[in-house]
Amino acid sequence: AFTIFGSMALSLLLYKVFPAQFAASAANTYTGYTAVESGGAVYAALSLAVVPAVLEEFLCRGIAYNEYKTYGAVTAVFMSSLCFAMLHTNFIRLPIYLITGVILALVANASGSIIASMVVHSAHNVFVLFLEPYIYKIAAKSGAGIMLMMFIVITLLLIFAILFFAKLESLYNEKAHSGEKSPLIRKKRDGELPHFLQAVTSPTFVILAVFYIVLSIIG
């Protein structure tokens, strides 16, 4: 719920600030929505929501996260989320993917299971596919409509944010009481560049960033 209402709040904000650009971007996101309308809901959910979620979690929370884990979990969470955001090659929706990536990375890190982030990611994708288009239709009807929608969404976002971070605190407390060493921040050696700077200047990330910028310009 925190993931869903977080991305929804950002979507409505971006829709308000960049209505034309964001509307076109959203249309590209729902390329398979006609399959839903024509009765292929199960096929659409599997092919456009569940399968992409599983594969993206393997890539971003599996490979990318573990690649950057040597710099500490804080850097790994942010870098894997940045890779996740750029993977979608959609500049307008970049903040949405980045925040969603951070939440998914925290889910995987706190639970110690990539399965958990796959489930959350799949649920989020199903919501976006089936229900988010109706949110935009309601918000587009009038200025008062989008303000009311924003109020409802932000209220629910704050409620589920409190629940989400309370659960994270509980999970990390359990790890601490069991004597597990914190992986969140790792001290750098003398003369060594900050871990985040090392991560963003790594050849793999630089190639990905250049690829993303080129595709965004072309798009």
Task: Give a description of the structure.
The structure is a single chain. This protein has helices at 2-17, 19-29, 33-37, 41-68, 73-87, 94-111, 114-130, 132-139, 143-177, 195-200, 203-218. It is mainly α. Helix 1 (2-17) runs antiparallel to helix 6 and helix 4 (41-68) crosses helix 5 (73-87). Helices cover 80% and strands 0% of the residues.
Give keywords.
11 helices; mainly alpha; 80% helix; 219 residues
List the helices and strands and how they pair.
Blueprint: H1 2-17, H2 19-29, H3 33-37, H4 41-68, H5 73-87, H6 94-111, H7 114-130, H8 132-139, H9 143-177, H10 195-200, H11 203-218
Class computed from helices, strands and strand pairing: mainly alpha
Coarse morphology: globular
Give the averaged pLDDT, no decimals: 83
Helix content: over 70%
Low-confidence stretches: none
Number of helices: 11
Number of strands: 0
Report the span from N to C terminus.
31 Å
Biggest pleated sheet? none
Strand-residue proportion: under 5%
Give the C-alpha Rg: 19 Å
User: Could you give the order of the helices and strands?
Assistant: HHHHHHHHHHH
